[in-house]
Design brief:
With 316 residues, this protein is mainly alpha-helical. It folds into two domains: 193 residues, no CATH class; 80 residues, Orthogonal Bundle (N-utilizing Substance Protein B Homolog, Chain A). It contains 15 helices and no strands. α2 packs across α6. The longest helix is centred in the first third of the chain and has 41 residues.
């Protein structure tokens, strides 16, 4: 699921888009920010659907084999065990999943070769052949073959990778989140009764997380000029155009958290943005951002502008 670091990245992406655009419509960009979260859930539903489609293709494959000019005995008696897989059967009865299919208009008919190619890979695998031979299946063993389909068939497919990359702008960034959501789904689907199995939630607490990202986005924009002055005062020996835009945005977000988010420890804020800088900025950004934020934080504390509340958050 999306943790606070992922959510900070979403805000960073939206701030970058806002500053790069000619539009000063904060509310529209805020809507776009929330849409990027919804896109993660949409991607999750599409992936669950793809997993289901691969298993259901067994029926199509069996029909094609039976209609061959000279079908073998195996062709005429294809093993359709995967069609009754407990995980998939439960998924196809899940109200949240069915609502997601409808909301996002999920249908794979635009990419028929993808499903076929994935099932072909599955059919030839030793894991699938062993699965077909089992006679004492449980919800756990049924999940094991689905995990194999997801991890070793779909995620290893360059065609599937390309399809999702074309469909979802932030696929390279959100791919890890998707894997966490699918893993959570495998954990949640632990019951033979489909009504007890729940989909994963996109965040731990959406009400709190929504408030966090909206406030962080708005505060970073509202005080943009003030935060820029703070950064400029500590980077006088640097030419402005030599400071990466991502570095500036990360520092402004960190300052916003220092001043406006009393329940977030200063150390957590600094560590989070240093980690994000490793992935989204230059190799030297980590040390640069750390040094500048330390200086800015010292000034803010001297001015009594950093007020943290709660046990362990008050800093001397």
């Amino acid at each position: 699921m999306l943790n606070r670091r992922h959510l900070r990245v979403k805000v960073l992406q939206s701030l970058y888009a806002y500053h790069q655009s000619n539009s000063g419509d904060v509310k529209q960009h805020e809507k776009n920010l929330l849409l990027t979260i919804d896109k993660v859930y949409e991607m999750y539903i599409w992936m669950l659907s793809l997993i289901s489609e691969v298993t259901q293709y067994a029926e199509t494959d069996a029909a094609e084999r039976a209609n061959k000019h000279l079908p073998t005995a195996d062709d005429l008696n294809a093993n359709l065990k995967i069609m009754s897989n407990r995980f998939v059967v439960s998924l196809l009865q899940n109200k949240e999943y069915l609502a997601g299919l409808k909301k996002y208009k999920v249908a794979w008919n635009f990419e028929p070769e993808l499903i076929k190619s994935l099932f072909t890979i599955l059919k030839k695998s030793e894991d699938y052949q062993e699965y077909l031979k089992k006679t004492d299946d449980t919800i756990q063993t049924d999940k094991d073959i689905i995990k194999f389909i997801f991890k070793k068939v779909i995620l290893k497919s360059s065609l599937a990778e390309q399809v999702f990359e074309d469909m979802f702008l932030y696929w390279p960034v959100d791919k890890d989140v998707l894997q966490a959501l699918i893993a959570k789904t495998f954990k949640n689907f632990a019951y033979d009764d489909p009504k007890q199995n729940k989909l994963a939630e996109v965040t731990g607490n959406w009400e709190e997380d929504r408030e966090f990202i909206v406030n962080l986005f708005e505060e970073s924009i509202r005080h943009n000029d003030d935060y820029q002055l703070l950064i400029t005062s500590k980077t006088q020996n640097w030419e402005p155009d030599r400071i990466a835009m991502m570095d500036t945005l990360l520092m402004k977000m960190a300052i916003a958290e220092f001043v406006n988010f009393p329940s977030i420890p200063v150390k957590v804020t600094i560590n989070e943005y240093l980690e994000i800088s490793k992935e989204f900025s230059t190799p030297k950004s980590n040390a640069f951002i750390n040094g500048i934020l330390d200086k800015i934080l010292a000034d803010l504390k001297a001015q009594n502008k950093v007020k943290k509340i709660g046990r362990g958050l008050i800093e001397e």
